[in-house]
Amino acid sequence: QVQLVESGGGLVQPGGSLRLSCAASGSIFSIDLMSWYRQAPGNQRELVATITSGGNTNHADFVKGRFAISRDNAKNTVYLQMNSLKPEDTAVYYCKAGITDYERRWSLYWGQGTQVTVSS
To answer: What are phi and psi of 73, to 5 degrees?
Structure first.
């Protein structure tokens, strides 16, 4: 059984920083694309950033220059460094990963989400 667990969310003032983590655990053979999404109240879930197993990244325009996605393949963990946070960044942040298990079955997995609130 595979699961993703996010951590690192919280309350931060505008202009502040947070670092989110998402650790995958279980019967993992390999992990390909890992992503961060977010969903604000009343809004659809939106893609924030992606990173391939080789480290190639893409960031949504609304976070470019402020957020950075990275991963540690040895720890099966993806990170999201968030700087210069704005109130409009307030949302529940979710990680998603494409994972192949030891029986060579591939599935998409989501974490449970972590709340980020940017407010003075």
So the answer is: -65, -30
86-116 pLDDT, tens digit each: 999 999 999 999 999 999 999 999 999 999 9
Distances (CA, A) of 48 to 6, 25, 30, 38: 15, 23, 23, 7
Q: What is the DSSP letter of 11?
A: E
| Residue 109 DSSP one-character state | E
| β 57-59/67-72 pair status | unpaired
pLDDT given at position 1: 87
CB atoms within 10 A of CB 91: 22
**Quick check: 79 and 20 in contact, CB under 8 A?**
yes
The whole-chain average pLDDT of the chain stands at 97
